[in-house]
Design brief:
Strand content: 15-25%
Shape: globular
Number of strands: 17
Oligomer: single chain
Order of helices and strands: HEEHEHEEHEEEEEEHEEHEEEEHHHHH
Helix content: 40-55%
Structural class: alpha+beta
């Protein structure tokens, strides 16, 4: 079932991507020789209007093959026979349609589930946030000038720009319909940590991230695992786990955690690690949702797509700067595994919760595909776009045979990356 769901999600996302190329190519008068979903041998196909429409056996790709796209021909109806701006529109259309799909899916998800406002959920007595005047229930709207809509954006900000003791943080917030601004001064504190992140909402407790060198990572836990109990106490939601930690703060005593991975139960016993860290003195909503009206659904759907695109770029930045590593990367195999976890754990909460979580995955994958395809990497849309923009400003194209060699090398490197990602997925799962 999980594989079937993954095929449907991947198929829809790839279809929209290739549909963007297809529609703009047809509009420009470019001959599309084949429009296909999947890779490898054809399962079924038919020809209409000079285009072969195909369904292929491997549901991991797709194509919109245009006449003369990969050679130097400029015969009538070929890709290279059109002016540079028409070709640019065709190339950009694929990623742009991925963003359109992410928005359409967001409309459904936000309509079903609501959105997660950046509400302050607690303020620690005697620490920075209390001194700055923050209170539970305040809604954060900006941090250091960065607009905040979702609680996830607060988490993303502190993940990519960690608080530093003694350095001020400007916070803007709303309380009772009025706007306020204050300044936080983070402080050094000592605390015990297990080294993982999760969402304190009304859904299951999925491990969102792990910190290398901390107890849970060293014990073999992975992002995507679902915690079901701690010290024998059952926890079915993120809020229940948060309440448990509030009533039973971590100390030097060992804790036993039960979690689910690929429908199997595991138990690990670990001792929290004492660390010196930095605290801003408040916690915030990281998953609890509220419903909104029709205009709100449209508004927050735009912000949802914006958030996913922003987090993708920031995640890439963390990967290149060493703040994240290759074990945090996920390819098709791991995504199928995560989708399986999502279905298995959320089915007890009802069909709406299952659909909402699957939609969240689809939005993430679609927007990620759009971003990745716009990167200036040879053989991808972004790599082709670089050559077209150079042509637009130069007034003539770069030698197309040389461009072809560049894309061929890029394709080989992408295939090598795909092999690595598959290996990385299997290693992380097993």
């Amino acid at each position: 079932m999980s594989i079937l769901i993954a095929i449907i999600i991947f198929g829809l996302i790839i279809f929209f991507h290739e549909l963007g190329h297809f529609l703009l190519a047809k509009k420009a008068g470019i001959t599309v020789t084949e429009f296909s979903i999947g890779m490898g041998p054809r399962i079924a196909s038919f020809v209409k209007g000079g285009t072969r429409y195909s369904l292929k056996i491997l549901p991991i790709g797709g194509s919109c093959m245009m006449l003369g796209e990969d050679d130097v021909t400029e015969q009538e109806g070929s890709f290279n026979s059109k002016n540079v701006w028409e070709r640019i529109s065709v190339i950009v259309a694929g990623p742009f349609f991925n963003f359109i799909l992410a928005f359409l899916l967001s409309l459904v998800m936000v309509g079903l589930m609501g959105y997660d406002p950046a509400v302050v959920t607690s303020v620690t007595e005697g620490q920075a946030a209390e001194s700055a005047g923050l209170q539970s229930g305040d809604v954060i709207t900006k941090i250091d000038g960065h607009k905040v809509v979702f609680g996830r954006e607060v988490a993303l900000y502190f993940m990519t720009d960690p608080a530093v003791a003694g350095e001020t943080i400007e916070v803007e917030y709303e309380r009772d319909g009025k706007s306020y601004a204050t300044t936080l001064v983070p402080e050094n504190i000592q605390s015990y940590k297990l080294g993982f992140g999760y969402t304190a909402n009304d859904s299951y407790v999925e491990v969102g991230s792990l910190v290398e060198g901390y107890p849970l990572a060293e014990a073999g836990m992975q992002a995507g695992d679902v915690i079901t109990a701690i010290n024998g106490v059952s926890v079915s939601t993120g809020k229940e786990l948060e309440a448990y930690f509030s009533e039973n703060p971590l100390g030097s005593e060992a804790v036993t955690i039960t979690y689910v991975r690929n429908s199997l139960d595991y138990d690990i016993t670990v001792t929290p690690k004492m660390v010196e860290g930095v605290s801003v003195g408040f916690t915030y909503n990281t998953g609890g949702t509220v419903k909104t009206d029709a205009l709100g659904v449209i508004k927050y759907s735009f912000y949802e797509v914006k958030y996913v695109i922003t987090s993708t770029f920031k995640s890439l930045g963390m990967l290149f700067t060493g703040k994240a590593n290759t074990s945090d990367m996920a390819g098709p195999v791991r995504i199928v595994s995560e989708l399986n976890n999502t279905v298995e754990v959320t089915k007890s909460y009802g069909i709406v919760t299952v659909i909402g979580n699957l939609l969240s995955w689809a939005i993430l994958i679609s927007a990620n595909l759009g971003v990745m395809n716009l990167l200036p990497i040879p053989a991808l849309d972004g790599g082709r776009l670089v050559f077209l923009l150079i042509e637009a400003f130069r007034g003539k194209p770069i030698d197309r045979e040389k461009e072809g060699y560049v894309h061929m090398i890029g394709f080989i490197l992408l295939m090598a990356l795909m092999v690595f990602v598959f290996y990385n997925d299997i290693r992380n799962i097993f």
